[in-house]
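R.M. (postdoc): so does anyone remember the format we settled on? I'll just put the structure tokens first.
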């Protein structure tokens, strides 16, 4: 039976393990100590293209020459031979998890939503989360396509980014499907990102990081450029997908645990499974960029990252308070503060920084390995068959 592994289990990412095994950092109590940059005026970021020469199309590529950023010696159109096996592995895992929202039955949700069995506070929790996720997913997709992709000069990492971009489109599709199924006001849901302050705060926070990289003058050809790029990756992979989504996961899965709104709950389980891989890829990406460009990991950058995480935790607590102001489903602001701080610590550790909050996990069920018992049923009840090559039909 398939297992749904939740990221909170602190699964070490491949690059993070390499990072530690390569002895890049002295460790104290198992936590890598911050590292001072050396020779900050000698950007090894340019190691691949140090000669300034572009790749020679007449030569076969050497995988050892591959770099995640600023690679000018390897034809980025050539996937094989692989260098970053972790990127390919995340790509394969993403493909293995493929799902479509329309395959999840919504009838029970529709009946419950139309009944009087949900109170106003519970409806608000659901609506707020639909509002946040519906546009949040697009922001992540846009950041991949418009900001990140261009600067990643490695084909296996790009292969994963293409897969992830499609998954974000599927997630956005999910919210369209839910809104249609429940007969909700689509304009209300899809406009919450600038009409509801607690959602707007989170979205603006990450959108500013996209704008930094979207600047036409932006490049990763300097230490500052790579640092800005890494801050974008932290903002999206670690904060948006690794912190900002998690209060929502807890809220919606709390309904699911009570056997209510099970269609939405199931969809959130599949999104959570996808997001776990997105986060793991992001952590591997960040840690490998650090390995290849150690001079960027200055005390100042580390301080900036702590500040970003701290700010994000506060935005997330404001969001949780707005969703459950008087407590709903046994959830309240205090529990979410603890939870958000707990996952923020886990994220910090995975990028080689120290935990700062020391909070306990108030929702241990989120960190368990969960049998996705419905998976079998999920595929048995699918209403849409994917077209296989043998069944393709072309319109004239
Ligand atoms: Fe997503
Ligand atoms: Fe994602």
């Amino acid at each position: 039976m398939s297992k749904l592994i939740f990221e909170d289990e602190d699964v070490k990412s491949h690059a993070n393990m390499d990072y530690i095994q390569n002895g890049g950092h002295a460790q104290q109590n198992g936590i890598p100590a911050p590292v001072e940059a050396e020779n900050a005026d000698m950007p090894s970021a340019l190691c691949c293209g140090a000669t300034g020469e572009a790749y020679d199309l007449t030569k076969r590529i050497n995988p050892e020459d591959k770099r995640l950023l600023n690679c000018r010696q390897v034809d980025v159109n050539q996937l094989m031979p692989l260098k970053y096996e972790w990127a390919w592995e995340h790509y394969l895992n993403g493909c293995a998890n493929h799902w479509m929202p329309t395959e999840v039955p919504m009838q029970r949700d529709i009946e419950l939503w139309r009944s009087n069995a949900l109170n106003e506070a519970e409806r608000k929790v659901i609506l707020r989360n639909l509002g946040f996720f519906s546009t949040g997913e697009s922001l992540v997709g846009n950041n991949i396509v418009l900001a990140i992709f261009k600067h990643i000069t490695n084909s296996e990492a790009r292969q994963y980014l293409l897969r992830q971009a499609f998954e974000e489109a599927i997630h956005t599709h999910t919210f369209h499907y839910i809104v249609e199924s429940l007969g909700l006001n689509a304009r209300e849901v899809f406009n919450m990102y600038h009409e509801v302050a607690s959602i707007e705060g989170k979205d603006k926070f990450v959108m500013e990081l996209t704008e930094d990289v979207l600047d036409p003058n932006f490049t990763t050809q300097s230490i500052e450029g790579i640092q800005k790029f890494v801050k974008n990756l932290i903002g999206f992979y670690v904060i948006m997908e690794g912190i900002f989504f998690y209060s929502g996961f807890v809220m919606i899965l709390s309904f699911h645990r009570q056997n209510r709104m099970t269609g939405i709950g199931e969809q959130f389980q599949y999104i959570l499974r996808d997001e776990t891989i997105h986060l793991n890829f992001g952590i591997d990406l960040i840690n490998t960029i650090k390995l290849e460009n150690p001079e960027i990991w200055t005390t100042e950058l580390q301080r900036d990252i702590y500040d970003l995480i701290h700010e994000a935790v506060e935005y997330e607590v404001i969001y949780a308070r707005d969703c459950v102001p008087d407590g709903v489903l046994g959830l309240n602001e205090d529990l979410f503060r603890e939870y958000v701080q707990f996952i923020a610590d886990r994220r910090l550790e995975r990028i080689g920084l120290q935990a700062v909050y020391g909070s306990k996990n108030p929702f241990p069920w989120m960190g368990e390995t969960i049998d996705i018992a419905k998976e079998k049923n999920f595929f048995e009840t699918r209403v849409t068959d994917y077209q296989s090559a043998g069944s393709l039909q072309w319109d004239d």
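R.M.: ...and that's the designed sequence above, right after the tokens. Also worth knowing: Residues 140, 168, 241, 275, 278 surround fe (ii) ion (ligand 2) (CB under 6 Å). The radius of gyration is 22 Å.
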